[in-house]
């Protein structure tokens, strides 16, 4: 029987700076203890025998577990027959994770009203985006109203979905900042179409304004502050089109100007350092009264090397995290992007396909090591597009029995052509030549898929071909250990939410370390199954009178 999963974060609180520091210290200690598992990269799984990084008793137990149990492991579900040390690892990890179950916006702002986005505003949005925009727009509007902010600055606005919802549904002036001029053009054209629709609906004459757009590569918080204040000076300007890099620092960012209205910064999955720069601008600019930011792409954050103290990296931000000198690195930050909620909801077939892809990629690395060492030394990436194409191809093969039979027959016939009979193939693939038909069928299919994956990867890297028998030799060597891929991945995935929690708490503590006139909190705004990066950092500035009260 499975134990009830821990909800996460139960023993810790981030309501005060002291509580947040204590939580981060516990996280750092746990992460340091399991650093070899954190730093492991699946491409080197076979090459470096990474299953040996894990307690042998754990691996022997988990390799026998049903896939359904493995997928629940990162969420804190344990089995009573597991070793005590394994149960302790899983439950301790889960206890350190910030709770991510979605909360109703009304629990944050009692009078908030979540408006349902109509078909015109929702055009082009999938269900995930619609869910995010509806909830985020409602909270931004409520926070802006409560703190007296007059203009919303949508940072990393993309195609303008959030900006347009705020502009047309909530009647707020919006400035949309994005690095892509194409996005700005799409935002403007889309907003004009929506404007015509809303104008036709108005019985009385009503002034409708579209979001103003700014195209700028935000390379620092100074840039973001300068561009934000610049764009908000003229309330009558609808479209601001700045295409330069805007890298110079602005001396006006700390100065109050009567021509700039009070602002609220909003960001839906502002990428990498952009979310961090929003926090710094909120602290530095008097005109910015509040902030609602949902970050993403932790792997793209800049990180302090602790060598240059003049830099302002994306991580760490808080004084406490800087003093701890915990270094994550890109591979560990990438792990923070994993979604245990989504993995838990996948079908068995899809999960097994993903485990196979991990095994194929690790075996492909062995091919590079043996036959193309100069390429392997460059740590090549076969690319997101290549991975997506290979996953899609493998999925089609698995789903189609006819295609599967065809590949099996082709694989075996190719091997026969190289002077090997069927018994030889059985012997090489399985180690024995008397396997049941269903096992032979599955293993022959796996090799065919590995071969397909490898040829695709070699082609993408511009490498030559490798003979089938050479690939078969490599697959024979690694195949017995492929059953460890699933357990290993799930153990490592259990650490991902801890890394994300540490990064989020670092940002929160940065705000808590400011003066007592800043209130800040973390709030699970979206359904994590639909939108894995669902934690919003919400902050606002208190007036002197309210803080004294």
Automatic annotation (TrEMBL):
Residues 128-303 form the Methyltransferase domain. Pfam families: Methyltransf_32. SUPFAM superfamilies: S-adenosyl-L-methionine-dependent methyltransferases (SSF53335). InterPro entries: Methyltranfer_dom, METTL25, SAM-dependent_MTases_sf. This is Methyltransferase domain-containing protein.
């Amino acid at each position: 029987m499975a134990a009830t999963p821990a909800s996460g974060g139960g023993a810790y609180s981030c309501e005060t700076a002291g509580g947040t520091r204590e939580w981060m210290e516990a996280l750092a200690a746990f992460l340091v203890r399991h650093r070899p598992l954190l730093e492991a990269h699946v491409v080197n799984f076979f090459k470096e025998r990474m299953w040996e990084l894990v307690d042998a008793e754990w691996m022997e137990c988990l390799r026998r577990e049903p896939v359904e149990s493995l997928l629940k492991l990162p969420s804190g579900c344990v089995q009573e027959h597991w070793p005590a040390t394994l149960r302790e690892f899983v439950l301790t990890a889960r206890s350190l994770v910030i709770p991510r179950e979605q909360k109703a916006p009304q629990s944050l702002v009692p009078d908030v009203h979540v408006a349902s986005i109509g078909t015109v505003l929702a055009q082009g949005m999938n269900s995930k985006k619609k869910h995010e925009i509806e909830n985020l727009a409602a909270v931004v509007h409520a926070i802006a109203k409560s703190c007296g902010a007059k203009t919303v600055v949508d940072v990393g606005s993309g195609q303008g979905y959030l900006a347009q919802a705020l502009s047309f549904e909530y009647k707020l002036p919006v400035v949309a900042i994005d690095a892509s001029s194409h996005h700005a053009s799409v935002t403007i054209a889309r907003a004009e179409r929506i404007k015509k629709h809303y104008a036709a609906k108005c019985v009385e004459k009503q002034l409708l304004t579209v979001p103003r757009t700014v195209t700028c590569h935000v390379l620092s918080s100074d840039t973001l502050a300068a561009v934000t204040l610049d764009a908000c000076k003229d309330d009558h300007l609808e479209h601001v089109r700045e295409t330069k890099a805007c890298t110079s620092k602005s001396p006006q960012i700390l100065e109050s100007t009567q021509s700039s209205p009070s602002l609220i910064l909003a960001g839906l999955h502002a990428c990498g350092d952009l979310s961090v720069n929003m926090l710094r601008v909120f602290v530095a600019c008097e005109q910015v009264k509040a902030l609602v930011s949902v970050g993403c792409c932790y792997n793209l954050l800049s990180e302090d090397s602790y060598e240059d103290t003049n830099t302002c990296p994306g991580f760490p931000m808080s004084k406490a995290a800087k003093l701890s000198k915990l270094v994550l690195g890109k591979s560990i930050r990438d792990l923070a992007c994993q979604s245990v909620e989504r993995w838990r909801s996948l079908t068995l077939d899809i999960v097994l396909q993903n485990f196979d892809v991990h095994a194929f990629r690790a075996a492909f690395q062995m091919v590079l090591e043996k036959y193309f060492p100069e390429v392997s030394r460059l740590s090549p990436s076969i690319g997101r597009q290549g991975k997506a194409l290979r996953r899609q191809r493998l999925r089609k093969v698995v789903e189609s029995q006819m295609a599967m039979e065809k590949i099996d027959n082709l694989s075996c016939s190719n091997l026969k052509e190289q002077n090997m009979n069927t018994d030889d193939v059985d012997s090489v693939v399985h180690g024995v030549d008397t396997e049941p038909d269903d096992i032979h069928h599955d293993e022959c299919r796996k090799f065919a898929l590995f071969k397909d994956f490898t040829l695709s990867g070699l082609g993408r890297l511009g490498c030559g071909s490798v003979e089938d028998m050479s690939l078969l030799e490599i697959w024979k060597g690694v195949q017995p250990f492929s059953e460890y891929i699933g357990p290993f991945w799930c153990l490592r995935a259990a650490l991902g939410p801890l890394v994300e929690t540490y990064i989020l708490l670092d940002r929160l503590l940065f705000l808590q370390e400011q003066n007592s006139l800043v209130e800040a909190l973390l709030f699970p705004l979206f359904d994590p199954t639909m939108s894995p990066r669902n934690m919003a950092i919400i902050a606002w500035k208190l007036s002197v009178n309210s803080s004294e009260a």
